[in-house]
C-alpha cells in the first residue's frame, strides 16, 4: 500500500490530473481535492453547470461545487456552426463532468461529441434519468456514436432516452437495470427488437420505438415476447 492507502500498482495509471482526482475520490480523499478548481475544456458545458449551480459570474468551479450538482441540462448551443464543425474544435467535450458523482438527471440535446464520445458517462453511476437526443460524432452528423458501452455502467437508471441518435444495435444496454421504468428509442435506425428481447432487464416498463424502420414480418412475435414480460410497447 502507498502512503495514500491506495495499492502501489495503481500509480502507473496516474499519468494525468484526471486519473489522480479519480483515485482521490475512490479512496476517500475527497477533502484533499474539494477546493481545487475543476478543469473543464468545454466552456459551454462549464458555463451551463455554473448557471445550474447559481455560481456568481467568474467564480471558478471547484470539486465541492460539482459534487452538489444533481440535475443538468445541456441544451443545443444556438451559435454552433455546423458548416465549420471539425475545423474549429467545435465538438462538445464532457471531460470534467465525470466528477459530478451525485448527478441524478442529465439531458444533452443536439450535440456532436468529441473523439472520447460518451466515456465520461460511466462514472455517473447515480444517474436515474438520462436523456440524449440528436447525439452524433463529428461533422454534419455523418458518423454515429461508436461506443455506447459506458451506458452499461448506469444501473440505477429509471428513464433512458436515446432519441435520434442513429442507433441500430441495442446489445450495449445493461442487463442489470432493475430500476428501469421507461426506455425511449424514438427516431433511430432500429429494424428489430431482438436486443431488447435478449435483455432480462427489459420488463415491467414502457418501451417507445416509434419512428423506427421495424421489420413488419418479425414485429408481431417480438411484441408478443415483450408483452409476456409486461412491457408496454409504443410503436
TrEMBL record:
Superkingdom field: Bacteria
Listed SUPFAM superfamilies: L domain-like
Protein name: Leucine Rich Repeat domain protein
InterPro entries named among the record's database cross-references: Leu-rich_rpt, LRR_dom_sf
Organism for this UniProt entry: Microscilla marina ATCC 23134
Amino acid at each position: 500500500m502507498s502512503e495514500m492507502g491506495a495499492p502501489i500498482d495503481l500509480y502507473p495509471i496516474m499519468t494525468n490530473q484526471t486519473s489522480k482526482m479519480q483515485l482521490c475520490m475512490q479512496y476517500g480523499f475527497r477533502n484533499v481535492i474539494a477546493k481545487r478548481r475543476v478543469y473543464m475544456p468545454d466552456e459551454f458545458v462549464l458555463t451551463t453547470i455554473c448557471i445550474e449551480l447559481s455560481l456568481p459570474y467568474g467564480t471558478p468551479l471547484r470539486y465541492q461545487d460539482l459534487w452538489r450538482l444533481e440535475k443538468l441540462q445541456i441544451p443545443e448551443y444556438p451559435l454552433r456552426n455546423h458548416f465549420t464543425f471539425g475545423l474549429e474544435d467545435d465538438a462538445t467535450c464532457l471531460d470534467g463532468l465525470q466528477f459530478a458523482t451525485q448527478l441524478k438527471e442529465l439531458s444533452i440535446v443536439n450535440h456532436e461529441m468529441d473523439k472520447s464520445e460518451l466515456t465520461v458517462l460511466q462514472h455517473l453511476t447515480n444517474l436515474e434519468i438520462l436523456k440524449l437526443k440528436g447525439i452524433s460524432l463529428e461533422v454534419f452528423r455523418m458518423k454515429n456514436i461508436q461506443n455506447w458501452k459506458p451506458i452499461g455502467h448506469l444501473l440505477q437508471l429509471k428513464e433512458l432516452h436515446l432519441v435520434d441518435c442513429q442507433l441500430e444495435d441495442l446489445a450495449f444496454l445493461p442487463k442489470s437495470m432493475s430500476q428501469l421504468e421507461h426506455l425511449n428509442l424514438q427516431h433511430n435506425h432500429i429494424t428489430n427488437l431482438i436486443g431488447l428481447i435478449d435483455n432480462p432487464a427489459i420488463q415491467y416498463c414502457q418501451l417507445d420505438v416509434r419512428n423506427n424502420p421495424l421489420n413488419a414480418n418479425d414485429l408481431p412475435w417480438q411484441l408478443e415476447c415483450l408483452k409476456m414480460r409486461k412491457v408496454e410497447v409504443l410503436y
